Every structure is written in structure tokens, then in C-alpha cells.
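This entry is retained here.
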Amino acid sequence: MDAALADRLADVDARIVDAARGAGRDPDEITRIVVTKFHPVSLISDLYALGVRDVGENRQQELTAKHREAGGLAGLRWHFIGQAQTNKARAVRAASDVVHSLDRTRLADALDAAGEGTALDVLLQVNLTDDPARGGVAPADVEALATHVISRETLRVRGVMAVAPLDEDPARAFERLRACSDVVRRVAPDATWISAGMTGDFPAAIAMGATHLRIGSAITGPRPPRD
């Protein structure tokens, strides 16, 4: 076991507790997702041995391969947090417990069509920038998307997700995401999850109500070079 990995995990968890208590929140209501992008599947096994039960992947091919290799780890939850193509919806769904990046009706329909009875937890990704090329639904359209998704038989709307813009105070961006969460809960009252906050900005996300944090390098260390 890598002692440095255990130390980094413990450090981040302590920072999460401090940020939650500083915001007057219960740390137990926050789920820490370790993003293992580009790392070998052996890292997931090491994290599992340290008590990690939520891991995230950005790319469908990597998600599928790691899920196949490590899928036998009981209780491990797989979060897909990258942009999904509709033609990869079946593969994404087969390897995911939660999809964080549902941002259009066509993707909702494709994920729903790939379902085989079991409900899939999904979050609506919101674009907090002025760039329409970025992933995510515009805040003005989030209610319409939520209304569409809740009508899909095999999808369960759990909340919203966003990435804070690099050129803005993350607290301001996450405040807008929290407003989008309020909108979604008008049509899906149980959609209480807010997936926000990464290595560089998770304290601000916690202060603005994040329930799920997506943390990579602060726990995993630098990403290994790609082939």
C-alpha cells in the first residue's frame, strides 16, 4: 500500500470536514468522489482498501475497462463525470451507477433506451459560462430539461452538476448552481444532490451546498504520462 496515497486521502478528508463545519454543515452529508482518470486500475484497488467507495471517470472507454477489471469490489460506486456521446450511452450506462453529465434531451433518451429495468441516477450538468460550446445546459433551460428527464421511465434525477469557470470566483459560480438546484427541485423534489467542487475549489463548493465533490490529483497524485 502506498503510504503517500493514504496520507493524501486523509488530508483531503480532514479539509472536507473543516470546510463543512466552517459552513455549519454536517460532513456526513458530503460524498467524496475520487477521480481516477488516467491512473491504473490498481489505484482503485488501493483506494478501496483505504475505504473509498465512490470513484469517477471522465472517458467512456476508460470507465468500461476499469469497471470490467475492478467491478468485483463490493459496494464500489462508479460515477461517470465526462461528456457522453449518445452513441456511447449504452456503454456508459452499463458501467455507471451515476451519470453526472446529462445535458440534453437526446442523451436522456439514449440513456433511457439503454435501460433494462433498473433506474439510473443522473445529474443535470449546467454550463456556468457564456460559452455555448462548453458542456452543460444553460441555466435558463435547466427546468425544461429536468421536466423531460423525469418523464423517462428508467432515469432518476438526483440533482445538478457543474464545473466552475476558471476566470471567476468559484463561490459566485456555485451560488448560481445552487439557484439551478432550487429550480430543478420544483419539478423533482427529491433531486437534492449538487455535484460541484474539485481539487482547487471544493471548500467554496461546500460553502454553497455541494453534496458531492469530484477530487482527483489532491488524492491520487499527478496523473501518469499517457502513452
Observations:
- The chain has nine helices and eight strands.
